[in-house]
Backbone:
């Protein structure tokens, strides 16, 4: 429980720092470092813990940045929900590894965001932004996937040492 | 364990999706729009009724209804400035609790629309530049401009 709270704190900090620093030249696009924590918790703990952590993160970050219930909030929320369900599903399927699950989560995050965006502006025109978002989501998913993979490897050796 | 297989499948998935989605994205940008709009609609919020219509072929601006704004904002939105060819809408994005203007510039001759001034974290809609077909969507302000190129739709 304490560890989960720590993970949540890390995810919140990552999320806020990331939205403050534009890393990629494309405006608004983010790597999604906070998703590294979601992935790690999904693999180390369970789907339930991971989804709870992710939803709390989205709500707390929007509270801290003053965007609660704003248009962007609904998009992050729907993106996060779809992504976590997709990752939970593919994790259980066990066909792909951490990297694959991360990429798929990233893709579903975009789809969720666009669905949220549809309800915010009430126009299907927003779907036109999906191709560029999906295209950018692949490298983002790969980067977060690699980070999570490395962490999980180290985590396993730690656990062995402890036992 | 089948971790080696999983790794191979992961890489294949990432590469295939990257190529596929890259192709879709390029095809979209190249083929999506013919630059021949007869008019453009300006919308605010989730409403499907345009607040302003920019009729390029008839060279006129049609103001459909007043934007529903709190009394503390003294101007009557949308503000149409025919001399400067701009339309100003009150956006949703707030700075210090004050909603900010979204300024849209139109050009009848070029049949184009550009969002020249707005406040938002990433300025995605104003960075789109001048558009002749691609919809301009400003999510934080909940303002959008969509083009229509169907002549049959012309009933104004």
Residues:
């Amino acid at each position: 429980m304490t560890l989960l709270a720590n993970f949540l704190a890390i995810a919140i900090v990552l999320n806020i720092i990331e939205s403050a620093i534009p890393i990629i030249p494309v405006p608004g696009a983010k790597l999604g470092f906070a998703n590294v924590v979601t992935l790690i918790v999904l693999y180390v703990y369970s789907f339930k813990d991971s989804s709870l952590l992710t939803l709390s993160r989205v709500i707390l970050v929007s509270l801290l940045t003053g965007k609660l219930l704003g248009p962007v909030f609904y998009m992050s929320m729907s993106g996060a929900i779809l992504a976590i369900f997709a990752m939970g599903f593919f994790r259980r399927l066990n066909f792909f590894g951490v990297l694959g699950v991360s990429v798929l989560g990233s893709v579903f995050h975009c789809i969720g965001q666009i669905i949220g965006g549809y309800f915010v502006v009430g126009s299907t025109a927003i779907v036109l932004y999906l191709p560029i978002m999906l295209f950018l989501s692949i490298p983002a998913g790969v980067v977060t996937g690699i980070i999570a993979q490395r962490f999980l490897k180290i985590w396993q050796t730690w656990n062995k040492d402890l036992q | 364990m089948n971790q080696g297989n999983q790794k191979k499948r992961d890489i294949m998935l990432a590469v295939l999706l990257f190529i596929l989605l890259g192709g879709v994205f390029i095809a979209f940008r190249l083929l999506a729009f013919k630059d021949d709009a007869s008019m453009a609609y300006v919308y605010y919020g989730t409403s499907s009724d345009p607040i302003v219509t920019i009729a390029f072929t008839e060279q006129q601006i049609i103001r459909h209804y007043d934007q529903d704004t709190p009394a503390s904002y003294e101007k009557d939105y949308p503000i149409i400035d025919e001399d400067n060819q701009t339309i100003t809408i009150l956006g949703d994005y707030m700075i210090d609790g004050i909603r900010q203007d979204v300024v849209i510039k139109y050009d009848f001759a070029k049949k184009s629309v550009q969002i020249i001034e707005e406040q938002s974290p990433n300025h995605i809609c104003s960075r789109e530049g001048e558009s002749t077909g691609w919809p301009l969507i400003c999510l934080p302000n909940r303002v959008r401009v969509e083009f229509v190129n169907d002549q049959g739709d012309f009933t104004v």
Q: What stands out?
A: Chain B has a mean pLDDT of 87. Residues 39-153 of chain B form one domain.
